[in-house]
Amino acid sequence: KQEVTQIPAALSVPEGENLVLNCSFTDSAIYNLQWFRQDPGKGLTSLLLIQSSQREQTSGRLNASLDKSSGRSTLYIAASQPGDSATYLCAVRTPYSSASKIIFGSGTRLSIRP
Amino acid sequence: KAGVTQTPRYLIKTRGQQVTLSCSPISGHRSVSWYQQTPGQGLQFLFEYFSETQRNKGNFPGRFSGRQFSNSRSEMNVSTLELGDSALYLCASSLDSSYNSPLHFGNGTRLTVT
């Protein structure tokens, strides 16, 4: 059974720092992995999607990596800003052969201090 | 381009009643999926539709059901409501049948069961 874990649950850093958020999963058989951010009281915003055949994806100050063999993904945020404060979630799509589902981690609540 | 629209935004129901939530996807998107978010269980996948057919289903009891119409709009229904069904229900749409199309979320319907 696929499980997705995000540690730490909360993180506070000063503005301008580079930071890394972690996501781990127990079964390397995945179809893809997505990173989202969620602002309080809102839905999720898709940040990056990494297909199982890819190693990383980049968008602006964000870079996500995927290592299926070790069951890990990281989201790197460069030059953090107060507007980056949000909860960041990763989600794994399980492959067709197991009646595909999307399994979310519990999220990392990020706070950027001005 | 309008985003994913979920109605109503808030809903209060009594235990034992049933409820129907609505989701209008982004124009041109043909896949819709539903999720339940609670503080205790986090974000959990309910089901997913493409071209009016349910493609995948999460691990929820039969009281939770859904459907998709020919215009891609979707509804989910919860019958015989329980206190534990209180949650934020999120809908997401994606462009096509590819699991590698990013998910776009609505802001959710906050359901409170008393």
Provide the fold topology.
The complex is a heterodimer of chains A (about 110) and B (about 110).
Chain A: E1 4-5, E2 10-14, E3 19-25, E4 32-38, E5 44-51, E6 56-59, E7 62-67, E8 72-77, E9 86-93, E10 102-104, E11 108-113
Parallel strand pairs in A: 2-11
Antiparallel strand pairs in A: 1-3, 3-8, 4-5, 4-9, 6-7, 7-8, 9-10, 9-11
Chain B: E1 5-7, E2 10-13, E3 19-24, E4 31-38, E5 42-50, E6 53-57, E7 64-68, E8 74-78, E9 87-94, E10 104-105, E11 109-113
Parallel strand pairs in B: 2-11
Antiparallel strand pairs in B: 1-3, 3-8, 4-5, 4-9, 5-6, 7-8, 9-10, 9-11
User: How is the main sheet of chain A built?
Assistant: 6 strands, mixed
- Provide the gyration radius of chain B in Å: 13 Å
Strand content of chain A: over 45%
Class by SSE composition of chain B: mainly beta
What fraction, in percent, of the residue positions of chain B are helical?
Answer: under 10%
Low-confidence spans of chain A: pLDDT under 50, at least 5 residues? none
> CA-to-CA gap between the ends of chain B?
37 Å
Terminal-residue CA separation of chain A: 41 Å
Q: Which descriptor suits the 3D outline of chain A?
A: globular
Overall residue-averaged pLDDT value of chain B? 95
Shape of chain B: globular
Descriptive labels:
heterodimer, A: 114 residues, mainly beta, 6-stranded mixed β-sheet, 5-stranded antiparallel β-sheet, globular, B: 114 residues, 11 strands, 0% helix, 53% strand
Written overview of the protein:
- The complex is a heterodimer of chains A (114) and B (114).
- Chain A has 114 residues and is mainly beta.
- Chain A contains no helices and eleven strands.
- In chain A, β4 and β5 form a beta hairpin.
- The termini of chain A are far apart.
- Chain B is globular and about 35 Å long.
- By secondary structure, chain B is mainly beta.
- The relative contact order of chain B is 0.33.
- In chain B, the strands form two sheets. In chain B, strands 2, 4, 5, 6, 9, 10 and 11 form a seven-stranded mixed beta sheet that branches. In chain B, strands 1-3-8-7 form a four-stranded antiparallel beta sheet, with no helix packed on it.
- Chain B has no helices and eleven strands.
- Chains A and B meet through β4, β5, β9 and β10 of A and β5, β6 and β10 of B.
